[in-house]
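Model: You mentioned two targets. I'll fold them one after the other.
Researcher: Yes, keep them separate.
Model: Target one:
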Amino acid sequence: MREIRVLVATAWRVDRRLTLAMIAEPLGNTLVLMSGLWLAMLTNGVIRHDPRQVVIGIAALVLGAGLGWQLDLSASQWRMVLGEKVAHAFDTEIARLCAELPTLDHFERSEYQNQLELLRQRQGLLGNSLSALAVTVKAICAGLTVLILLVVAHPAMLALVLLALPALLITRTQQRWRATAEDASALPGRTARHLRTVAQDRDAAVEIRLFGLADYVERRIDTLWRAQRAPIEKTERKVALASLAQQLLYVTGVIAAVGFVLHQAIRGTSAPGDVVLAIYLSQQVQTAVIWPIQAVTGFGRTLHTVRRYLWLVDHARAAAPTGHLPAPERIVEGIRLENVSFRYPGTEKWVLRNVSLTIPAGGALAVVGENGAGKTTLVKLLTRMYEPTEGRITVDGTELADLDAEQWRERLAAAFQDFARFELTVQHAVGLGDLPHLDDTAHVRAALGRASADVLPQEAQLGTSWGGADLSTGQWQRLALARGLARTTPLVRFFDEPTASLDAFTEDALFGSMARATDGANGMITILVTHRFSTVRSADLIVVLADGGVAELGSHRDLLARDGRYARLYRSQADAFAG
């Protein structure tokens, strides 16, 4: 019932007038099914020479069937229009739910990925969900109408209903078969979709051609597609055989029921019109008695897809952050990590372990370390993309988990190595970093200047697929950096290797200016993450991560004087660069 409530509530929300008009479809179909009764009346009137019955029968046939067909046809067209609106509403809601999940945990969970893959594959069924509901109601009304007419023809005709009952058991079994097949097809389907995306990806095109992977990718996609289709096709064959057996049983019953009523009419215990009605119903029962069962089956498949949508709704609700305290306007003391440990969902390996660190207000922290040391993970924890597995993070003594996540992120700015390429105008691609100033050309111009990213006019379109400019990776990265610098007074600015595609001299100059550009009024903290040790000298504090923990902590001068890990790595890079 929850799935049905969601369907009706969505339809009512998008168009109340069309939702109410849907009632006309089962009403029209009922009027059409009543034609058998009027045919029986007309037949009896002709045989008995009763003009009154003839007139009523003809009038009811013309008016009832005509009005019924018109209502049925018009309502089905209205249903199609409403179905499109409902489909758009579901598509929009799914996109919103996926985009607004507060953390990134779900990307690490196979269950979520499989559910989302099945939802993507059958998202079209959500668009037809309202049609499936309307057809089911229409079929049930038709079934009730035919049941009444069966009693009118002869109560013995109700035996046809008994012959249709096995379809209920068969239908439930078929639903279970199909659900099992869907689950089995999820993983190969998701993998095939990933490879299709890679095959069409511009960045992967070079490697695909260089390593001669086109044939391999094609064969792999074909193999996965067959693996995805195999359980579904096997199930559909079983479904078809079960349906055939049920249909043969029913046809046998129809022949026996019509023969019985005909025998009664020959003996004079039934009216001739009852024979006409029985013949008419023998054609209608097939659709009007079994049709509701089939409609419920199809609707059950739709509800299964709606159930996956509701799983996403419940997942988003369960993943909602618990913190509701307002984010501070300024940082007075700093950010403190107390015995923070973290491992990604579904894994046993600790990425960070017992990290304790104080980042003073108004300062610049550089985070360095080898690949896999946990540098980016630290940034994800501070931006609340993930919550610590153990320990806690505080901002001026208040736990970060207690702050409203959305408000906290509104007070942050960031640029990353793995950046998004928004194929919009330069103005909007940068302005997205500070939405209230999206169309403020002066504000965006200043951000471009801070990132040395004046690569194109602000009104220029980006992306060749839109007839725009084709930028290099370095140019795209400068725009991403400008987007990260669009907010002028954040509490914390994160720069997670945002200049990896730039040369060392440019990176050094940019990092130096970013580290110096602190705002004493709100205690803004700048956090620089890089694997290039030469660019962090201007930071107030440097933390060296190794093996998931803090290996060293101090200023550039102090760490060199200690002649430890930092000093060795720094000199190693300096020698390599000099060479």
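Model: Target two:
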Amino acid sequence: MTARRDIEVITERIRQRSKAGRERYLSRIAEASNRTANRSVLSCGNLAHGFAVCSPSEKLALGADKVPNLGIITSYNDMLSAHQPFETFPALIKEAAREAGGIAQVAGGVPAMCDGVTQGQPGMELSLFSRDVIAMAAAIGLSHNMFDAAVYLGVCDKIVPGLVIAALTFGHLPAVFIPAGPMTTGLPNDEKAKVRQLYAEGKAGRAELLEAESKSYHGPGTCTFYGTANSNQMLMEIMGLHTPGASFVNPGTPLRDALTREATKRALAITALGNAYTPVGRMIDERSFVNGVVGLHATGGSTNHTIHLIAMAAAAGIALTWQDISDLSEAVPLLARVYPNGLADVNHFHAAGGLGFLIRELLDEGVLHEDVQTVWGEGLRPYAVEAKLGADGAVLREASPRASGDEKVLAPFNKAFQATGGLKVLAGNLGHAVIKTSAVKPERRIIEAPAKVFDSQQGLNDAFKAGTLTGDFIAVIRFQGPKANGMPELHKLTTVLGILQDRGQRVALVTDGRMSGASGKVPAAIHVTPEAVEDGPIARIHDGDIIRLDADAGTLEVLVPGTEFALRRTAEVDLIGNEFGFGRELFAGFRQLVGRADHGASAFDTA
């Protein structure tokens, strides 16, 4: 089955735009596969170093190049809840590999930082760049050329995009992504948000706030709201890089372990040593990325992926643009209400039918490409399932239920929450920007109000404490782009602006920085490009200028006569304070090399 015509038209546009780059990419991975993608090219000294700690039988098998060797790239650390479960995965993977007649080795580890820990802190200025560091770290692990396939253990914000870039760079190798799953449900997200607002207003103390946060983030697994981490898992499944039904099974459960074992054996089954060779660089194509964007819109996913998807696609020689993402938004309805665009968390979403239900609904309506290749084989239809634990301890899959378990959380196609997707691209005389509309009430999606201009999120928070944020206004926070300071998430603005909106003020945000993947109820035009430090128009806005943000029409304009606006001097800010401390001095090269947000904000050229 092919996708609906409007989806096909956008896909074909991407295919034609990408033709030259994609051909170069496929030629490179074909050459890698033919000439260097096996241990036989290694000298005896090379090989001896590579299997020095293996058992005698493993050395014999690896030396003869008779069995597949699986490289494990892991983001394990035991400080962060999403990554702590990966501690036990390598042993499980090695055992499963032996059962399947293969071998597995930990090829390398990659850093995994948590935006939740670094929000509002200097370390957040390393966050976006960590994606490219992760890609490079994974490449170092795989550069030993000891492996016939790789499995990638990653979950959160920049980790999965970085791992995908690495996997596609080593596109001659099969790649299977193995998630750890979300933590069990804790304090409801809306209750946590209320305590945050009370704290910001001085009506609750630090003890009450810490108690609420600790009840919300309380154990192993990803945070349960639908931010970037859980959007990552959706993407990996709908793009066919997970095994079916793997994304949202809690850590530490028999089913989670069974899925990990199964993924290991599947990775070994699709190497060039068998009959189902599935190199990831050929498997993932333009249709796969369109499916990912469709999933992002249908679930109201993270705005961060308007950056990451472009960088990921570029690693496969595919030129995806914001315009493609915006046009797909018009074709895809919103089918999920998960916090922050609803009260449910990702566990409720999974219980209501989860990705299996969502994928089937989208496939049946022709909004997804069914005729893609996945790590599971041909076609996306096998992903319209629910994974369960069989009596023998193996994974059992059943067809996804025809009815949603809770239509307030997961709607059928004919009862969509809104006719268009949860993300929108804005354009106008301020450049281009992205807005997440799924959590913003329709009556708040258009605002025309005077600007209040700040050059840091702390400046706005100080103004809030001083009581000067009165009346309707649009907050402009600039010099927060990739080249300025690494494009940190400005999550600390969420609570303050939410309080003012709840008081009856009409407020919005315009920034060249990022918001959290949990961007919420306040309209926020983010990722404004060109950024201020590159003489973008956002740097010429003055206090009191009238700005019009229209998320329905997709426009972002400053209502100043064109000649007057063009003649204004660009504001300048001393960014020396963002260049040192907490490792920021080590990332000066990244700030110099990084591209624009709408080009993927990458510090290297993968085309």
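Researcher: Noted. Anything on target two?
Model: Residues 5-35 form the longest helix (31 residues).
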